[in-house]
Structure formats: structure tokens, C-alpha cells
Amino acid sequence: MKKKLSLMFVAFSALAILAGCEPLTIFDPKGPNAKTLSDTIILSIITMAFILLVVYVLLAFMLTKYRASKASADYEPPHEEGSHLLEIIWTVIPIIIVAFLAVVTVRTTSTVETTPEGYDNKEPLVIYASSSNWKWHFSYPEQGVETVNYVNIPTDRPIEFKLYSFGPITSFWIPQLAGQKYAMSDMLTTIHLAADEAGSYMGRNSNFNGRGFAEMEFEAQAMTQEKFDEWVSDVKTKEKPLTEEKFDELLKAEHVGRSSYSSTHLEFRPAPMEHSEHMKMGGMDHSDMDMSEKEMDHSKMDHGNHSDSDKNSEETHSH
Amino acid sequence: MSMEEVFHPMQEPMILAAAISIVVGAVVIVAGLTYFKKWGYFYKNWLSTVDHKKIGIMYIATALLMLMRGGIDALLMRAQTAVPDNGLLDAQHYNEIFTTHGLLMILFMAMPFVIGLMNVVIPLQIGARDVAFPRLNAVSFWLFAAGCGLLNLSFIIGGSPDAGWTAYFPLAGTEFSPTVGNNYYSLALQLSGIGTLMTGVNFIATIIKMRAPGMTLMKMPMFTWSILITNIIIVFAFPVLTVALALMMLDRQFGTQFFAMQNGGMDMLWANLFWVWGHPEVYIVILPAFGIFSEIIATFARKNLYGYKSMVMSMVVISLLSFLVWAHHFYTMGHGVMVNSVFSITTMAIAVPTGVKIFNWLLTMRHGKIQFTTPMLYALGFIPIFTIGGVTGVMLAMASADYQYHNTMFLVAHFHYVLIPGTVFGVLAGYHYWWPKMFGFRLNEKLGKAAFWFIAVCFNVTFFPLFILGLDGYARRMYTYSESTGYGPLNMLSFIGGIGLAVGFALIVYNIYYSWKHMPRNEKADVWDGRTLEWATHSPVPEYNFAVVPTVTRLDEYWFAKKEGRDITAGKIEKIHMPNNTGTPFWMSGFFFLAAFFAVFNLWVPAIISMIGVFGFMIHRSFEKDHGRYISVEEVMATEKSLRGDK
Fold this sequence. Notes:
Chain A has helices at 2-21, 32-65, 84-112, 225-238, 244-252, 275-282, 289-300; strands at 125-132, 135-140, 145-148, 150-154, 159-165, 170-173, 181-183, 189-193, 199-205, 217-223, 259-261. With 319 residues, chain A is an alpha+beta fold. In chain A, the strands form two sheets. In chain A, strands 8-5-1-2-3-11 form a six-stranded mixed beta sheet. By secondary structure, chain B is mainly α. Chain B has one domain (38-582, 626-646): Up-down Bundle (Cytochrome C Oxidase, Chain A). Chain B has helices at residues 3-6, 13-35, 39-47, 52-81, 91-125, 134-153, 181-209, 222-253, 267-301, 308-321, 337-349, 351-365, 374-397, 399-405, 409-439, 445-471, 488-518, 557-564, 584-600, 604-623, 633-646, and strands at residues 576-578, 629-631. In chain B, helix 7 (181-209) runs antiparallel to helix 19 (584-600), helix 8 runs parallel beside helix 10 (308-321) and helix 15 (409-439) packs antiparallel against helix 16 (445-471). At the A-B interface, helix 1, helix 2, helix 3 and strand 9 of A face helix 5, helix 9, helix 10, helix 11 and helix 12 of B.
């Protein structure tokens, strides 16, 4: 047992050393959202270390004090039913710890699900991020530009990523800026984030979606507002608009490099509905004619790479 | 599907080697049985048995085989990721391997190991002569075996499932997984799942109705309690899997759109159904381990279990909560703060009853006289390692933080820290503990302890680095990564640990051979100075378990009877009613296997013909008059005399 404890100690100190020389990605946040999560995780690790310590000390005590080799040959262990006092103690203390962590969880979850603090007076920049096969499409409706496999964002402005997928479920994740969220084919999800510092950050799909999954990365580049505006006007003037044919070609491709366009696919292939709208519709009467138009919009989206798959989607679309 | 496509997997050299080894293995077994003229013995004593002990042993043997199979998958994965940009496996092969690793380890290793131990032990522990429905028990086992065989066959014929053991839609739909791999998934799991559901019904009936006289619920051993609660969870959770798999089959093979992207299908419906079953499943494999540890810690601390009532209560609370936490598997799906908060709190709440159990085990040892036997080492190793799994579970339960852990190696490390020290240590502890009861000789302690130390130390070397990698942003299920990520060294460390784990498990298998050759026979019935009824009867246990069913007046009756010098097995021997052996479950499951195999390839005519065979056996059974048989008093006396004489 002592061996195991010392092993744990070595492992923990290895973690500390590793964390010391170069911070692990999760503990190296570059935006308020990721910072909140990093703080939450560190707080929970400290709390958990305390619990581990209590259990290890108790275990070490029992194993050293009550081993058979230390007891006399005729020692007969007593019959013990249990103790109400002890049981109350080790039920109530964990409940207090869990209650504390629950409060932290609820607060931080609502924090990261809204516009980051300090940025709430600014208009958020909305970017639609969608996945197909093993690549990412980023559409900027406000700027009227679109990129593939890289995304540029201005610092000092809140960003809202609207996520969806042209196929299997993917998970959009830029660990140094924010936690991840699923991108799905039938509803829109939102990530709120902001970048405090200019820099290049790794972004990837973290949810397994088939053969090319390992390579499904993108670069998120945060830059000053001026540089961002410069980049937008560059794309607007130098790149071609994204046509429907070109977009279909992109959807079918497995892996592609980076590219930029001076218009977005949202014009001819609108994104699905928000999750909340989806839920409302679920409870509605589907004979309602007002809804049918919206549903048709939704079904126009190309859901796959098989050209035959979108033909039947124009037909009965009911939830 | 053309023949070329069917045998496509064989073009991979490693798969070809696996296929050849499976064929050679089968040929050796068949030739061996023929050469030694053991076919009759094999059929009469094993294939057609309804004896719970033999069925249990067959479950455990299958589990050990699948442990090796899943372990090789794991080693291959660790080898592939040991260095950056490794080309040992390609993406497709890696995807198949991590999918089958998960399926095999959970459904065809952990489950049969747990069910095997409950088969061997429960009737003995409650003083019964068999389970409530012995023939149904054989059906359960053979359906499980059919499912297990089918999934293993997928590796050779047609290709294994490759969409992860969770098989999320739309990835697992025909559009993105056009091979038959996920047909195997739905059908293999369906067969074994139905078997498990029957086990659930069977053991609830057994524990409720067949306890020895005087053994009220609160006088049951803790392992029996854990199995009762486990089976109640099985009966509530497995029907969800049955329905989900049926919908999956309809979607993939009959063109329905339950989980499709078009026509109102909902991909997240699958995720919900899967985890409504999947989370309780975690407790199905962990609660029996808790029961085993309770028995072993009490036995080797030589003290009664501390806080018996709170131990029972905590398991009941865990079983209720296990159905209220499933959405924590997809906090990142985008449901609101409210939903995530509720599921965070229910998930963290599980830590409270689990903590109660940990402290009760620790306090059981206080004032005890601890003996460090192999089973006890596993129980003691469980506490510190599992606690790491538990506290990281609380960390993952925090929805906000989970946005950073989800789909990463941190999660992978967490559930291995729960399932290996929990379930695997639990079943290995039980396996070493009850082995003498099953076979009448002990496993060698030296080898057993060496294996434990290899496994306990190397487990941490393998999986602790994964926590760090996860916090560094390493997503799970990636078949490779580039050198610039810096993930190389820790992955290499993990691979080295994996080799050590393999050595540990190899020692466990070698110990079977060594002990069979060298360990003394005629071990006494009560090898460990145990507390519960299974130690009151002979080892190995006679067919009828107890010549005279003991009467129970309190918890740990056998322990107190020993102290008071009473023989609780004494009494008047009467003739014993026992069920007859039958080959029906074996053959019926064989037809089930054929039906499912043909269905995988959409060959509906032979599939329907095979199903007619299945129904034929059912109809035959419903008209069959089989009232079992009696073992005469003389025969019982003779058996008892020879077993007692041996002591």
C-alpha cells in the first residue's frame, strides 16, 4: 500500500511539474469564458484533493494499525454494528461539499452560457460554424464572407458561434477560448466567447465522426478590430463569391485546405432552427399551416454528402 | 453485398492473422474433443446443463476469453498512439478496434463476469438448490454466447462496427456507416441483451422467493443485496436498450427514419435512449463489485460489515439516482443552464451514498485483524484507486467544467479509473475468493499477488497520464496526432504501462494452469474462514448444493454457528427435487444466432427459416412435460459421505 501511495505522490508531483513548466492547454485560457472554466476546474481539483487526502490517511491508518501480523494470535475482533454519529458525519459533510460544488456549477454554467462579463455592452459578432465530413465552414453574415478551416475573430468584442452540422454530430472546441458544444444537423446551438489577447489558437472537432476525425482541426486567429476589418475587406475584394455549385463541391470533399469567399452559404442553405424554437415546435400541433413554411426552410438544408439524400427531404416533414 | 466485400476485412494482415488464429483455435478444440472422445461428456455436462454453478463457470470462462480479446484491442490502441504519426493502424482499423474494445469489455467481459459470479454464488449464499428458473438461466447464457459469437465473427466476416461503442446517429446510420458493421452491433447486442434481461427476471425471483428459512431481507449477505438491486436495475434499464436497438435495426435495414437527419428523425433521440440504458448499465457492473468487496473486506478483516443498514440504503439510493443522470453524457448538446444544472446535481449526489460505502469499508477494518490475501489485496487496492475515479467523476459532473473535459482523454481516464478498480478488481477479487468453492482447490497466492501488483501499479502508469493529456486538449478516439502537439511522451508512458497490465493479466491466466497442476486438492469447504452460507457446503459444491437447507436466524449465521460449535447443515436428509438437463436452450440459441447472422446481411429468407427453428423449440417446450427428477436419499447420503470423507 505504501508503494501505491508513493506512486500517487510521484504522479501528482509530475502533474505539478508539468503544469509548472508549460501550462496545460485547459489551464492557459485566453478569454473570459475559458478563464471561468479553468478557475472552476482548479477549484474542484483542490476540493477533491482534500477528499482524497482524508480517504488515504484513513486507509493508511487502518492498514498499518489493524494488520493481522501486529495483532496477538488470540485477538478476536469485536462485533460492531455501526455508529449513527459517524454515519451522519460522513453523509452530511459530503452533502455540504456537493452543495458547494452545485452552487459553483450552476453559477459558472450560466456565466459561460451568456455574453462574457466585461463584454456585455458590446454588440456580439455572430459567426455560423458548420461541419461537413472532416472540415469546418465559417460564415460571417454581418460581413458577408465565408471561410473554410480557419476562423478570424476580433479581440475585445464578444463572439457568438452558431453551430450546426451537415452530417454526423461534431463538437466545436477552441479549448483556450471556451468549452465545447455539439454541432448537429437538426438544430442550432450557440457558444459565447471572447478573446482577450491576439493570437493563434487550436480549434477542433472533439466528437468522433468517422475516418477523418483525427485531422479535423482548424485555426482560430484572434486579432485587433483594425486588422480584422482589414482582413474582411481583403476577402471581400480579392475572393470570389461562394456559389451553390462550389458549396456542394466543398460539402462532398473529405479534407480540404483553407479557403475564403466573399459571400456565405447561408443565403441559399439556411441554418437549422435554434434549440429553443425546436422544443416549442415539438409541442405544437403540426397541422398548423404557419409552421410548414419554416419547416420547409429547415428541410432545404443539404443533410449529407449523398446527392440522393436531399431529394426526399422536401416531402413530408413532420416531427 | 458481394463476396469480395464480405471478406474485405481479411485483406488487412492483422485481421487475417486474427481470423486464422480463431479458425485454428476452433479446429484444435474440435479435434481435441474428438480425439479424447469427450463430445458426449462435453454435451451432457456443459452444453445442456441447467446447473447454476456450471452456467456461472461458463460465463466466467467466456469473460476471461473476452478480457484477452478486448485487452489485445487495448494494447493495439496504445501501441498505435505511443508515438506521433504512427502508421501501425490506419484510421478505419483503429475505429473498429476502439469500438469493439468498448463493446467487448462492457458487454462481453464485465457483464458475463458479474453474471457468472452471481450464478455461482447467489443460490449458495441464500441456501437455495438452484435459481428460480434453471432452464431460463441456460437460455440466458446461450443467448449471451450467441451475441458474443456474433460480435466476434464481425471481425472476420463483413467488418466490425466502427462508430464507437455508443454508435451515435447519424454516424451509425447507413449513410455514414454503409458496411454491415453496425448491423452486427444492433443484432449482437440485441441477442445478449435479451439474455441479460432474462437473467434479471430470474435472479429477482430467486432472491425474493428462494431464500433459506429465516433469512429475511435484512439478514441477507451484502453480495446478495447488491445482486438483487443490480437485477432490478437490469429489468428497468435493458428494455430501453432492446427498444433502441430495434429502432436502430429498423433505421439501418428497413429504411425508417427514427434517428435520421431527414423527415423529422432526431439523432439525439438515440443518444438519449442509449444513455437511459447506458448509465444504469454502469451501476449494473459496479454494484456487484461493491457487494463482492463488502464480503471480502468483512471476511479478511475478520469482522462483521460496518453499517449494514446504511450499506443497503446507499445501494438503493444509488440505484434510484442511476436513472436520473443520463443527460450528463451530453451536457454539450446545448440544452439550457436549467437542464444541465439539474443533471449536475443528481450526478454529484451519487457521490454521497458512494462515500458512505467507502467510509463503511474503512471502518469495517477498524479493530479488525487484516489478512492480506489475494482477494483482499484487490479489495484494498480498489479503495485508493477507485476514489480517484470517484472524485474525477464529481469533477466531470460539473456541467460547466465538462465543456472542457467532454470527449477528451480526461474522460477516458476517469471511466477507466472507475471501471478497472471498481468492476475489474471486484470480479477478480470474487474470482480468487470463490475459486476454491467452484473447483475444490485454491489459486496460487504468490502468483495471484504478483499479478495484483503488476495490475495495480501498471494501471496507474497507463491511465494517470491520460488525465494530464486530456487537460492538455487531447481528444479521445483520434487514431493519431502530430508531434507538435507534444502528446508523445505521456502516450509512450501509457503504452509502457499497458504492457505491464498485459503481463499482469497473463499471470492471472498462467495461474489457472499452474494451480491446476500444482495446488493441493481436497481443500476444506471453508477455506477462508468465511461468514456466509456458501462456505457451509462442500467444495466443489455437489449438484444439489445443500443436503439439508440451513435455517438462518441472523446475519452471518454461519460465522456465529461456527463460534458456537453448531453445525447448520445437520438435519434429516430427504429426497431432493432437481431440474433435468436439456439441450433446448443451446440449440434454440444456435438458431437465434443463425437468424441474427443472416439478418446482418439482409438475407431474410434464411433468417426467417432460422426464426421458425427458434419458435419450433419454443412450441416444443410449451408442450413438453418435464417435472424434473428426484435425487434419492441414498444417493445424497453417498455423495455427502464421499465429500466429507475427503476432508
